[in-house]
């Protein structure tokens, strides 16, 4: 590498070290200072200047608000400095909404799984309350508060149970929440128990067993597909590994890709093929999970 490349690498390393120091100061020392204030018993506690505390507090709040997708423009800036081109900056800016969409979809799937687990816990708790001798309405009130399986519709369902309303209808409406589909089975058990006098606890036990079996089946399928997903992600990272190897061998691949016509063409075509391949592989995995 030339002196310019070494200077760029030194500048990037300095910026990274400074960012890491600010990150650590904004989190670790800020939490330690709060602990000292908590256990000081009202006495004087040594602290830094007010301006420094305010800056560190703002940095800590900013770190909590920003998602991991904002590392894309940071990586773009680093590549722009190393490759002496503004194209990586634009690529990093374009990657922010795409990565944010992927993060939100992942968070939605986790919330859906958490709500499904809460519905299973609700069915089990409700069956236990009914067996203990409580009336269905009172049992639902206790079980819902302990499990939180009704989600955002908890107020409407509990109001129907408390004042003699349409509990199965309220449960069916609550089942429209992602991950709360098991509440449809609970509504059916409730309707059968009230209209035909069938045992509510026995129906809840069967529903709880069915929901647990379905959850275990999804977990098993997800475990079987984890290898395919990891392979797709690993293949997506191979171009970055190729750039690092080319740089280590002195080929300067960033200059070729960003400052020559053939390199730009290869970069555009390769990026499109990379994105299409990753999308197709993840689509196959998600289709298998949905099936």
From TrEMBL:
Residues 125-244 form the Type II secretion system protein GspF domain. It is a multi-pass membrane protein. The chain crosses the membrane at residues 6-26, 71-99, 232-251, 257-282. It is found in: Cell membrane. Signal peptide: none annotated. It holds the Pfam family T2SSF. Residues 204-231 form a coiled coil. The keyword Coiled coil applies. Keywords: Cell membrane, Coiled coil, Membrane, Transmembrane, Transmembrane helix. The keyword Cell membrane applies. This is Type II secretion system F family protein. It comes from Streptomyces kebangsaanensis.
């Amino acid at each position: 590498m030339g002196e310019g490349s070494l200077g760029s690498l030194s500048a990037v390393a300095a910026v990274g070290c400074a960012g890491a120091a600010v990150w650590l100061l904004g989190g670790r020392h800020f939490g330690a200072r709060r602990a000292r204030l908590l256990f000081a018993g009202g006495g004087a506690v040594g602290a830094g200047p007010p301006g420094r505390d305010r800056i560190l507090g703002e940095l800590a709040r900013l770190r909590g608000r920003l998602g991991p997708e904002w590392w894309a423009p940071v990586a773009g800036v680093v590549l722009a400095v190393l490759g002496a081109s503004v194209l990586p900056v634009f690529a990093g800016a374009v990657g922010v909404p795409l990565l944010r969409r992927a993060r939100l979809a992942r968070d939605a799937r986790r919330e859906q799984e958490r709500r499904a687990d809460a519905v299973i816990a609700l069915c089990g708790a409700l069956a236990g309350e009914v067996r203990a001798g409580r009336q269905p309405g009172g049992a639902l009130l206790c079980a819902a508060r302990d499990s939180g399986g009704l989600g955002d519709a908890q107020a409407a369902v509990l109001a129907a149970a408390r004042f003699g309303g349409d509990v199965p209808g309220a449960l069916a409406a609550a089942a429209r929440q992602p991950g709360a589909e098991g509440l449809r089975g609970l509504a059916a058990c409730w309707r059968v128990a009230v209209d035909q006098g069938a045992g509510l606890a026995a129906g809840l036990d069967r529903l709880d067993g069915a929901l647990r079996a379905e959850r275990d089946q999804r977990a098993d399928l997800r475990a079987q597909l984890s290898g395919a997903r990891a392979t797709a992600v690993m293949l997506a990272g191979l171009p970055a590994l190729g750039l690092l190897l080319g740089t280590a061998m002195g080929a300067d691949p960033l200059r070729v890709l960003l400052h020559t016509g053939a390199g730009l063409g290869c970069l555009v075509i390769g990026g499109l093929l990379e994105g299409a391949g990753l999308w197709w592989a993840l689509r196959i995995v998600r289709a298998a999970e949905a099936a």
